[in-house]
Amino acid sequence: MSVVKNLSKHRLIAASTATAGMAAAVTAFAIAGTASAADSASGTWTKPTIVLEHGAFADGSSWNGVMEKLRKDGYPVVAAANPLRGVASDAAQLRTVIDHIDGPVVLVGHSYGGSVITEAGADNPKVKGLVYVAAFLPAPGESALRLTNQFPGSTLPGTLDPVTFTTPDGSTGTDLYIQQDKFHHQFAADVSAKDAALAAAAQRPVAQSALEEKETGPAAWTQKPSWDIVTTQDLNIPPAAQRFMAQRAGAHVTEVKASHSVAVSRPGTVADVIEQAARATR
């Protein structure tokens, strides 16, 4: 049964907007620019700025452990605020983040964030590499929903609650959350119960239409080198789907026995793969 058919069985308990993180991102631009300038002034290799794009049911804090390792190793980092409204509009916002960064960039996308970096990174000379973390690598004409349903194994539909929202122009849409009491098992089984409960409470909803929206192309992974962390205990995106997309993209693959929330449960591993990609920009 498809995700869409299952969605109608549930109700959502809260709603969220996509604007809260932009001030933090703007502050991070200055941090990133300063770090890059310092490298250049010293005559050493200018490390690329790592731009992290979170996915559905998460926020920028899901990258905290990864950012700590990257910053310790001298990389400028921006954890972008993903509106989770639609691939094209979310990619447009991510491109504005990239535009405000001096020097080369490595884009990193988790889950639905992979769809966003696939579109935002295309035809952009600043973007030197792509890292997909338990993520979608869609081809033109594909949606996250289609790729999920193409392979068995996702138990996400049975955990979702939808809520109807009304926009200022009077149109309506549906936001999706994971039910808080099912979040730990579904999204973050290898994260502590305490941390999973906090993540469940802070989760950001994704518009159902965003998961149904098709990639317009070109796909950035056809133009730039890519790395992919495949999570073999993932209940959101089936491992078979992840392997299919990674192989098709010719990505450098690292398989990790982890849940969908691998950036939280295995931040060191995720940071190491990102640094591999960054070093390839030399």
UniProtKB/TrEMBL annotation:
Transmembrane segments: none annotated. Residues 50-273 form the AB hydrolase-1 domain. Residues 1-37 form the signal peptide. The keyword Flavoprotein does not apply. Keywords: Hydrolase, Signal. It comes from the Bacteria. GO terms for molecular function: hydrolase activity. PANTHER family: AB HYDROLASE-1 DOMAIN-CONTAINING PROTEIN-RELATED, ESTERASE_LIPASE_THIOESTERASE DOMAIN-CONTAINING PROTEIN. This is Alpha/beta hydrolase. The lineage of its organism: Bacteria, Bacillati, Actinomycetota, Actinomycetes, Catenulisporales.
